[in-house]
Amino acid sequence: MNKTDRRIRRTQKLLGDALIQLALERGFENITIQDVTARADIGYRTYFRHYAGLDDLLRHVAQTQLDELEKLFRFPAVEALPRDFFAYSVENGRILFDYLQAHEPIFRVLLLQDSVRFCLQPVIRHAREYAETFFGRFPPGDIPTSVIANHVIYATFALMHWWLENDKPYPVGRMGEIFAALIMRPAINQ
């Protein structure tokens, strides 16, 4: 890793952090590139070396979160799954909601602001493909794998949205249990 790579990542992080802070304060639709560069203390022209516009920066922030989450959820082969799939799902749910809590400002923008829904579509599509690969490892049931994957991903995003929108009424551990009982158990037991 060279000095240039670090500098690029530092600039991208500063711009992403500034975007999220401003979006929380004013709403995404009410900020400009000038607002972001001023908050990040980055030159306006430097911004365009990295991103074409605010939508591009927000997509980068969202993709970064998805990439980090994907690293946390390396699902084993079906043969290697623990005997107690429910406990395994509770743990994955806990990991998810712990991550959501640790990155709450970003997810408050991504999940609760209607003006950024455009940004979630590619993230949801990618997550759905990932889930379809995972559920495709199980013996086929009555419901097509693509339908199960779609349901699990949209239900998971809805549960995350609900938790943030209601100011996290339950602790992370309880949300892991809810995730497993409400979303994962029915998907596996179909």
Give descriptors for this structure:
mainly alpha; Arc Repressor Mutant, subunit A; 2 domains; Tetracycline Repressor, domain 2
What can you tell me about this protein's structure?
This protein has 190 residues and is mainly α. The protein folds into two domains: 3-51, Orthogonal Bundle (Arc Repressor Mutant, subunit A), CATH 1.10.10; 58-188, Orthogonal Bundle (Tetracycline Repressor, domain 2). Helices cover 75% and strands 0% of the residues. The chain is built from nine helices and no strands. Helix 8 packs antiparallel against helix 9. The longest helix has 24 residues, at 3-26. The model has no long low-confidence stretch (mean pLDDT 90).
CATH fourth-tier homologous superfamily of the largest domain: Tetracycline Repressor, domain 2
Helix and strand run = HHHHHHHHH
- Using the alpha-carbon principal axes, give the shape: elongated
Strand content: under 5%
The termini sit apart by 47 Å
Task: Count helical runs.
Answer: 9
CATH topology of the largest domain: Tetracycline Repressor, domain 2
Low-pLDDT residue spans: none
Mean pLDDT: 90
Radius of gyration over C-alpha positions, nearest whole angstrom? 18 Å
- What would you call the structural class? mainly alpha
Query: Total domains, how many?
Result: 2
Main sheet record: none
Topology, pairings included?
Elements: H1 3-26, H2 33-40, H3 44-50, H4 54-72, H5 85-102, H6 104-112, H7 117-135, H8 145-165, H9 172-188
Helix pairs in contact: 1-2, 1-4, 1-6, 4-7, 5-9, 6-8, 7-8, 8-9
